[in-house]
Design a protein that fits this description.
It contains four helices and ten strands; from the N terminus they run E-E-E-E-E-E-E-E-E-E-H-H-H-H.
Length: 188
């Protein structure tokens, strides 16, 4: 499902030394492509975006590019389509790194509809043990298939019988087709 969904650009203010952060998402066949950006009110050596997925599994960090004026941007590709948590890390020239608080993709501006596309509502609820076709429905399906096959067989025999009778020279006459007409009525 390669579709392009551009998220609503919503700027989320983070705590100091971070400024505003935002994210947009594009749906890919095997996941999501995120474009993230953050403002930094410091002069770091690098800024890294870190993600936390389902079950508190940490995703590989991605370094962001310095765009000038304190704006850092980058692209993160995910193999899953879920509303993960993202956080930013500043790596300074000296001293410890500074981490921002974690925010979901929807908090950063990604439209929540993108997460519903890969898991559409089927109307069967959350009961995964419930079969899509019941045994009674399967019996009716097989009965319908057998009835269709029988009808096609009858049509085939009828067609073969008509072709064989014409091949044997048994032409249908007008008298056979229209009862009540005499041969004198046909000649004028």
């Amino acid at each position: 499902m390669t579709g392009f969904l551009l998220a609503l650009v919503l700027l989320l203010p983070l705590s100091a030394p971070f400024g505003e952060a935002s994210a947009t998402a594009t749906s890919l066949d095997d996941g999501l492509r995120l474009e993230v950006s953050v403002e930094v009110n410091a002069s770091p050596v690098a800024v890294v975006v870190r993600g936390v997925g389902a079950g508190a599994s940490e995703l590989p960090p991605v370094a962001l590019a310095d765009r000038g004026d304190g704006r850092w941007e980058g692209i993160v590709e995910l193999r899953v389509v879920e509303n993960i948590l993202l956080g930013f890390e500043i790596i300074p020239t000296q001293g410890p790194a500074t981490l921002s608080e974690l925010h979901t993709l929807t908090e950063l501006g990604v439209d929540s509809a993108i997460f519903l596309l890969d898991n559409p509502d089927t109307g069967f609820g959350d009961d995964a043990d419930r079969p899509l076709v019941t045994p009674e429905g399967a019996r009716w399906g097989w009965l319908g298939l057998a009835a269709g096959a029988a009808a096609l067989t009858l049509i085939a025999f009828w067609t073969i019988g008509t072709v064989r009778s014409r091949d044997n020279g048994d032409e249908l006459s007008v008298e056979d087709d229209e009862p009540g007409l005499e041969s004198e009525d046909l000649v004028d």
